[in-house]
Amino acid sequence: MGDVMSDNILTEYYIPDYILVPGSEPKKPLWIPSCPVLVFINSKSGGQLGGDLLLTYRSVLNKNQVFDLRETKPDKVLHQIYATLGTLEQHGDVLAPAIQNSLRIIVAGGDGTAGWLLGVISDLKLPQPPPVATVPLGTGNNLPFSFGWGKKNPGTDCQSVLSFLEQVKNAKEMKIDSWHIIMRMRAPTEGSCDPIAPLELPHSLHAFHRISQTDKLNMEGYHTYRGGFWNYFSMGMDAQISYAFHSERKLHPEKFRNQLINQSTYIKLGCTQSWLSSPFHPSSLNIAQLTKVMIMKKQGQWEDLNIPRSIKSIVCLNLPSFSGGFNPWGKPYRKKYRDRGFTPPFVDDGMIEIVGFRNVFHGLVLLAPNGHGTRLAQANAVRFEFNKGAADHMFMRMDGEPWKQPLPVDDDTVVVEISHFGQVSMLATPFCRSESVHDPSSPTSCCDEDNEDSTDEGESPDDWEEKRKFGAADSFKFPTEFDITHLS
Length: 488
Prior knowledge:
Elements lengths: L2 H11 L3 H4 L16 E5 L7 H12 L5 E3 L5 H17 L4 H8 L1 E6 L1 H14 L7 E5 L5 H5 L11 H13 L1 E15 L19 E2 L14 E8 L2 E4 L1 H15 L7 H14 L14 H4 L1 E7 L2 E4 L8 E5 L16 H7 L11 E6 L2 H4 L10 E6 L1 E7 L5 E6 L2 E6 L6 E16 L32 H7 L21
Parallel strand pairs: 1-2, 1-3, 3-4
Antiparallel strand pairs: 5-7, 5-17, 6-7, 8-11, 8-15, 9-10, 9-14, 11-12, 12-13, 14-17, 15-16
Helix pairs in contact: 4-5, 4-6, 9-10
Organism: Theobroma cacao (Cacao)
Protein name: Diacylglycerol kinase
Keywords: ATP-binding, Kinase, Nucleotide-binding, Plant defense, Stress response, Transferase
């Protein structure tokens, strides 16, 4: 690469070593970068593409500002760098505050990798969190697609990387809601409801053993899991197909190194899963048989949500991209908004859209230009209660990561509760599909002011502590044996 191009890249995006290393002394900078970046790459995503992308970014930037997530955990990196920036600023360094004000983060990987970075940033509670741009290296790539970064794997050559950096520099910041999830169940002693293996849960859903004093499930013998998501939580047929795909990829990773092959395999699995053929399979049972669903539209006021008997799969959706770019909520006519009390599906209004599907053929309506699922509700909290009866397990999925959830085998209740948590900052291109309640170009908002306040005034300190973190930064660490290949 030529010297002129190198100099140009360095002055715009480059972060010098002394900023990246703790204990450094202030220095007089030769220039102030207009768009300093930290780059996190899942080198195992996209087959060989992740590794190739890592090499290219390290060739055009300071290699120490480009991190391989297989080797370095982002919570440690960001905690150290922000501590160093704070110390340098206190000692009069002029570059440190400039970087804090303009820092942008690039994360290359699947939706699971991007969610991991967002969780870390959320947990660090930074006064000015850096906005995030996502490079699509996964199979679904719903997060990148929602904000205009595309869903096809990118080029890894120098020119492609330079073009992406230019887009990052020109991208606008956009807030999106984040969603907290708590799952509680009795610790099983025997039977088919075996304890869940840690690696079978999504990376952001993990054990949290202390239950608040105000919780009715606060008794000996209960497990509590908590975490967060940005795009969707679903249960039923889509989660089962995804689970089959991930299980197959775990057994035969060598067969899943091409995005088109991955997508083709995913479709084939969708056509062969047993939920269509067996009336006794959990996914063949309707949602109303499996769980009681409650929603909260105003703080502290739960109400039952009537689920039509035909609904066999349910999606709680925050962004307008699901299963590789489809929008299950669609775009209702303004009259439907008025008649059913819906608001436009903004990504930063504290509301989540709840959509149902009858079967896989109903899901095919998403292929039509204006296709959508059955719109059930919008709410700022959702609660699912599972009791003994219909099935011994349920397939669930959160931001692309599926798991097989045991259900009660005795007089017990498994509870999954989703509530608004806060917001993170994304970077969006002009091709962004997401809409903001604060954007004048978006449809007119009908939102109630109460939706903007996600904290109940009557919430106890224990409750708030339980919701304070997603856990990616301090509370949760990947086990040493965790293979990042399985993180989409």
